[in-house]
Design brief:
By secondary structure, this protein is an alpha/beta fold. The chain has two domains: 37-186, HUPs (Rossmann fold, 3-Layer(aba) Sandwich), CATH 3.40.50; 196-334, 3-Layer(aba) Sandwich (Rossmann fold). Helices cover 34% and strands 17% of the residues. The protein has helices at 46-62, 83-104, 124-134, 157-165, 183-186, 205-221, 247-266, 285-292, 318-326; strands at residues 37-41, 65-72, 117-121, 139-143, 170-173, 196-200, 224-231, 276-282, 298-304, 331-334. The chain has a ten-stranded mixed sheet with strand order 3-2-1-4-5-10-9-6-7-8, with helices on both faces. Strand 2 (65-72), helix 2 and strand 3 (117-121) form a beta-alpha-beta unit. Helix 3 packs parallel to helix 4 (157-165) and helix 8 (285-292) runs parallel beside helix 9 (318-326). The longest helix is centred in the first third of the chain and has 22 residues, at 83-104.
Length: 340
């Protein structure tokens, strides 16, 4: 339900509710997360509609406005003569948006305005990222598969490029943990809930951005946090180093150092009052992070988009993109260059 005096979710903001130019300062430690604007790319596949249902529940939780975007790839604009057909396609896309919204809207206090529906042409990842900046989106939500206009935007290179280049957090819905399944969810009456959030950390300043964001999300949803650190598997590459230390001793030393860092992390001010646990694994980063996401109690994985120690480039480029591709639960990536 919408509290009196608050705009409906997805409604067109009034002047009093519009954000001023530029992003607001980051919230102080200990504050809950605030989401005002969520962008959802649609290709009208079943996966993208399921993502929209998930987003509606999320938007209700945070009283956020939802924007929808459909991208027509530029290879559909082969000749000027086809421009008229593109305009018809755009009109059909908007009509289809409205039809799909009507299907998923029952049971929700959600209103969508024409200004919140965007039909664009170009390279999908570029257009999605540009629009996210233009509307000052706080979050982009993507499923992991789809078809049509966005082509591979929901799986593979395009989704990974959105993760890499977006100026705001990106939530990639994957695995079997997010689709609507229960009668309450199917009827559109279920609340958005998180039980436990997995947070990979390498103890760099970059990975702490993800940890802080996860803490604010946990504070808003009542979820607990599990911090995961992966120790480099030295034994897979060499058995003896230059000073004669065995690979086993190197791993043990790294594990002890990680335990000390974990203890220091749990004492940080921004985690006060949040239920936290820690886990240290040894092995390839992608395998261990993805494996850690497979537990039935893990509802979400939150990670920064780059780090600089421990994992090396574990949280940017190939590792982050592989985690997005192989994790067993939804993955929320946080650009460490931003302020959230």
């Amino acid at each position: 339900m919408v509290t009196p005096g608050e705009p409906p979710i997805g409604s067109k903001p009034s002047a009093g509710h519009r954000r001023s130019a530029g992003r607001e300062p980051a919230s102080p430690s200990g504050e809950s997360l605030q989401l005002r604007t969520i962008l959802v790319p649609l290709d009208f596949s079943e996966a993208s509609i399921e993502a929209l249902k998930y987003t509606i529940r999320l938007a209700e939780k945070f009283r956020a406005t939802i924007h929808l975007v459909h991208v027509q790839p530029t290879d559909d604009l082969t000749t000027i003569a086809r421009a008229g057909h593109l305009m018809l396609d755009c009109a059909d896309a908007i009509a289809l948006m409205q039809d799909r919204l009507a299907e998923v809207q029952p049971g929700h206090d959600v209103q969508f305005w024409p200004d919140n529906c965007h039909v664009l042409s170009g390279r999908p990842f570029e257009e999605v990222c540009k629009l996210a900046r233009a509307i000052e989106a706080d979050l982009i939500v993507l499923p992991t598969r789809g078809h049509g206009g966005l082509k591979r935007v929901l799986l593979g290179s395009t989704a990974e490029r959105i993760v890499r280049f977006a100026s705001c957090p990106v939530l990639v819905l994957r695995g079997e943990k997010y689709p609507t399944a229960s009668p309450e969810e199917a009827a559109g009456t279920a609340d958005f809930k998180l039980r436990k959030i997995l947070v990979p950390v390498d103890f760099s300043k970059c990975s702490l951005v993800g940890a802080r964001y996860a803490a604010r999300l946990a504070r808003s949803t009542g979820a607990s946090l599990r911090f995961l650190h992966v120790v480099f598997p030295y034994s897979q590459f060499f058995g003896i180093d230059r000073v004669g230390a065995s690979s086993a001793s190197l791993v043990e030393t790294a594990r002890e150092a990680a335990q000390a860092e974990m203890a220091r992390l749990k004492r940080m001010k921004f985690l006060r009052g949040i239920d936290c646990e820690t886990e240290i694994r040894v092995g390839p980063a992608v395998d261990e992070i993805s494996g850690g996401s497979s537990g039935p109690e893990i509802d979400l994985l939150v990670t920064s988009t780059h780090g600089c120690t421990g994992f090396k480039r574990a949280l940017i480029g190939s590792i982050a993109e592989h985690v997005v591709r192989y994790a067993e639960c939804p993955v929320l990536t946080i650009p460490s260059r931003g302020r959230f």
